[in-house]
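Structure (tokenized):
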């Protein structure tokens, strides 16, 4: 009976305080919507990719490919052996393929932009010898000789190309030069996405462009009737293992070749995209978690105030027979209803967020087949909304149940459990000391271990702030409140008194802003430090007057260097050729100067040996030497992606320089380590002008020399720095946009707290109005109170952000960060912004307070 009565009381309480209900629900909606949006977006994109991968290797029984993507591929000798033993192994058809990255020009001669989607060249296989599904020619014919291509319809439409169009193709790696080609066919490809560019070449041309003539990228097989795909795979695997043994090679087959059924190829493709989507989903859910954490403080604050305002009501219920359990259940029932409503509305908003994200990614070439709202997204939104709300309301509900009826009816505005903060502050101070120690110790080191120590210190520091913030709020708010008190007189003093009256509430309200601005400062410190490193690396490390790079981080073929050298005003032209290899079983990435001596275009501080690289030499940075234990004169054995051992000798050690690679080998070693089709430029082509040549003249010469390469762009030193910094800025803006969720919730929290505070202080405000306070003075009081809370939260966030961000940057010096750059302009802007946020958040509560009628307020219960 009592529980039924309490349910009715809870429902009527919610119904009679609709505004309070809306504000509380909205804070839940914002947090849960990002959770729902993240789940819906990743499941939708994942489903679209899975549908595409269902067409990969379709009709292929077994595919053979190299384990190392940077290798030359499958030797022709292996293909010949398989062809000779087709019948014995159960092979019906055998087909080889080659592929590589390309850039295709549109009708106007400019590169077709893919928006991040693949742009690849493929070999076309005639239907009578093809294995698996081939692109369908929908207009024209297939390419038959050099200089002919077929293009997928989406790319043709985007590039205004049609059968008979003359255009240009640039292969993104190797030593190839731009090709003049004719479009002879338009295709439909099963794996085509929004920005995808697929260029078909005849087999001979593809082999010449994308292989060294001695290898192929893949070998596709179909099984003879009566032979299953699995049986064929096992037979081919055993045959290749025997072939390697006969050749006297002591290598593990599975470390060189992948022998997979078509189904395995499709599943591996799906697994790779699922891994990427899992990382992306984790990032989105991390920001959603931040929003939920901020929302938790708001909901907790809201229910604490609600319980405080209902003390008399709850005490009366206790007096007429309601148990402690009945009271706590009453409060939790309200929280449950708020959580369910917030979860459902959060799901709806999450669908909208996912739709916006999908629309954006579709414009960038990422596929989708419409929004997929599964049971997982629905369950996640409602579950998170309910759990977060119930946890946030549990402490206020527990406090409410412990209020003695007589004490509660004596004073309705006393917050339950708002006793001394001494114990809480003492515990927080101890944790804070431990956090500071971890941050300092971590900041003194470099690498993963110190970074993890900083992470531990960050967690401890945040917990310490949560515990000590109420005690800190009184002196801090009083201090800067005293400054504002002078120009505003009595109004300023009253606002300061209101802000410090309930330190728990002030701290809980401000912490929502603290957390958001802490992350803004940390990200800002990282971003500005990265940009500072870039500026320092270019200013101190490069001697070049101009650089030539690929747009959108596209690779450039080595032949670009030869074209750049044709510019009359260029005295020195050097690039770094990029490649991958293995050392001691681990992947390593190295480069080799191409076109000249790297010291002619970059500043190298040689610590030992010399900078000139002999053909089998190895020039390394001091950090590389330290990490690997290498010394001058030491012999280092690298293994190519094809499995060949290539010996080198350390001939020089230089001070780490972010402008150049930390590991450079001589050209002879590079040629043995990196297949021709994988040779490409790493970073920019560096150009030093001849004495007396005007910058504008050299720029024009360089632009003319590289025009054929479509994606090549010419930049001076300042432009080069700005282009890298702009990429960092874009990343930071994206992170700030995601953090905007927590800041929106923080503003909502201040509005919510002030609105409930106005209701709580209705009699007080009425009394002030009765003794002569004007409506304008009431509004200014609320404005100032809100500003004090917001600025306090911003100050805490700034201090906490710097305390974490500075040592974090110091630990990253191991990976190239040059030093800490504190974003003072950003910090100043956030503090000013916090004051503005305080005023904006107070607009509606202040107007509500100013409209309070004195007589009605004084007589109100």
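Design, position by position:
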């Amino acid at each position: 009976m009592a529980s039924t009565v309490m349910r009715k009381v809870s429902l009527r309480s919610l119904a009679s305080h609709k505004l309070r209900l809306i504000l509380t629900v909205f804070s839940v909606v914002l947090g849960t919507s990002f959770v729902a949006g993240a789940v819906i977006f990743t499941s939708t994109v994942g489903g679209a990719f899975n549908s595409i991968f269902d067409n990969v290797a379709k009709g292929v029984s077994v595919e053979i490919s190299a384990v190392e993507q940077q290798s030359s591929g499958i030797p022709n000798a292996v293909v010949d052996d398989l062809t000779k033993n087709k019948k014995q192994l159960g092979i019906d058809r055998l087909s080889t393929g080659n592929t590589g990255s390309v850039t295709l020009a549109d009708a106007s001669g400019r590169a077709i932009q893919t928006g991040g989607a693949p742009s690849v060249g493929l070999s076309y296989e005639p239907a009578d010898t093809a294995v698996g599904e081939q692109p369908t020619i929908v207009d024209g014919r297939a390419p038959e000789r050099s200089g002919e291509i077929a293009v997928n319809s989406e790319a043709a439409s985007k590039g205004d190309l049609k059968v008979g169009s003359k255009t240009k193709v640039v292969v993104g790696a190797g030593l190839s030069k731009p090709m003049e080609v004719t479009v002879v066919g338009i295709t439909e490809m099963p794996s085509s996405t929004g920005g995808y560019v697929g260029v078909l070449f005849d087999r001979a041309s593809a082999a010449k462009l994308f292989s060294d003539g001695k290898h192929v990228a893949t070998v596709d097989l179909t099984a003879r009737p009566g032979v299953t795909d699995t049986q064929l795979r096992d037979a081919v695997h055993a045959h290749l293992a025997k072939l390697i043994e006969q050749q006297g090679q002591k290598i593990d087959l599975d470390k060189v070749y992948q022998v997979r059924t078509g189904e395995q190829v499709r599943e591996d493709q799906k697994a790779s995209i699922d891994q990427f989507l899992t990382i992306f989903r984790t990032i989105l859910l991390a920001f959603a978690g931040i929003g939920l954490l901020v929302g938790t403080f708001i909901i907790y604050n809201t229910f604490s105030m609600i319980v405080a305002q209902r003390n008399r009501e709850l005490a009366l219920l206790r007096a007429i027979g309601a148990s402690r359990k009945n009271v706590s259940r009453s409060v939790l029932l309200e929280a449950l209803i708020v959580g369910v409503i917030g979860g459902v509305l959060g799901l709806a908003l999450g669908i909208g967020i996912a739709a916006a994200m999908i629309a954006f990614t579709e414009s960038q070439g990422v596929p989708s087949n419409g929004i997929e709202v599964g049971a997982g997204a629905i369950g996640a939104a409602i579950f998170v909304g309910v759990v977060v709300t119930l946890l946030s309301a549990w402490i206020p509900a527990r406090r409410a149940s412990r209020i003695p009826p007589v004490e509660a009816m004596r004073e309705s505005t006393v917050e339950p459990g708002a006793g001394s903060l001494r114990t809480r502050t003492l515990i927080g101070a101890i944790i804070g000391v431990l956090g500071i120690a971890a941050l300092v110790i971590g900041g003194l080191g470099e690498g993963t271990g110190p970074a993890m120590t900083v992470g531990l210190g960050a967690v401890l520091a945040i917990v310490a702030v949560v515990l000590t913030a109420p005690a800190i709020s009184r002196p801090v708010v009083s201090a800067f409140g005293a400054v504002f008190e002078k120009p505003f007189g009595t109004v300023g003093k009253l606002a300061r008194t209101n802000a410090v009256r309930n330190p728990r509430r002030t701290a809980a309200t401000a912490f929502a802003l603290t957390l958001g601005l802490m992350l803004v400062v940390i990200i800002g410190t990282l971003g500005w430090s990265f940009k500072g490193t870039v500026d320092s690396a270019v200013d101190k490390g490069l001697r070049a007057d101009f650089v030539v790079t690929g747009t959108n981080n596209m690779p450039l073929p080595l032949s670009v260097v030869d074209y750049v050298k044709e510019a009359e005003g260029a005295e020195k032209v050097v690039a770094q050729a990029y490649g991958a290899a293995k050392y001691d079983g681990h992947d390593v990435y190295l480069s080799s100067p191409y076109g000249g001596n790297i010291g002619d275009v970059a500043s190298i501080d040689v610590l030992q040996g010399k900078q000139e690289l002999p053909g089998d030499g190895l020039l390394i940075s001091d950090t590389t030497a330290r990490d690997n234990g290498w010394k001058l004169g030491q012999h280092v054995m690298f293994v190519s992606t094809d499995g060949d051992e290539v010996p080198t000798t350390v001939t020089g050690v230089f001070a780490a320089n972010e402008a150049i690679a930390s590991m450079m080998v001589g050209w002879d070693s590079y040629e043995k380590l990196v297949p021709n089709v994988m040779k490409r430029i790493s970073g920019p082509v560096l150009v030093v002008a001849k004495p007396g040549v005007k910058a504008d003249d050299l720029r024009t010469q360089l632009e003319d020399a590289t025009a054929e390469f479509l994606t090549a762009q010419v930049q001076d030193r300042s432009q080069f720095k700005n282009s890298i910094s702009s990429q960092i800025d874009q990343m930071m803006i994206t992170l700030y946009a995601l953090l905007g969720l927590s800041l929106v919730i923080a503003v909502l929290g201040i509005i919510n707290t002030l609105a409930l505070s106005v209701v709580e202080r209705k009699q007080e405000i009425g009394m002030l109005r009765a003794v002569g306070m004007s409506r304008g003075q009431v509004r200014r009081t609320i404005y100032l109170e809100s500003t004090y809370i917001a600025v306090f939260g911003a100050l805490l966030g700034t201090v906490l952000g710097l305390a974490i961000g500075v040592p974090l940057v110091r630990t990253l010096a191991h990976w190239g960060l040059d030093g800490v750059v504190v974003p003072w302009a950003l910090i100043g802007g956030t503090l000013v912004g916090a004051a503005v946020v305080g005023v904006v958040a107070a607009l509606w509560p202040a107007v509500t307070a100013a409209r309070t009628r004195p007589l009605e307020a004084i007589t109100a219960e």
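Reviewer-requested clarification: Confidence is low (pLDDT under 50) at residues 411-419. The chain has four domains: 1-58+262-418, 59-261, 473-543+717-861, 555-710.
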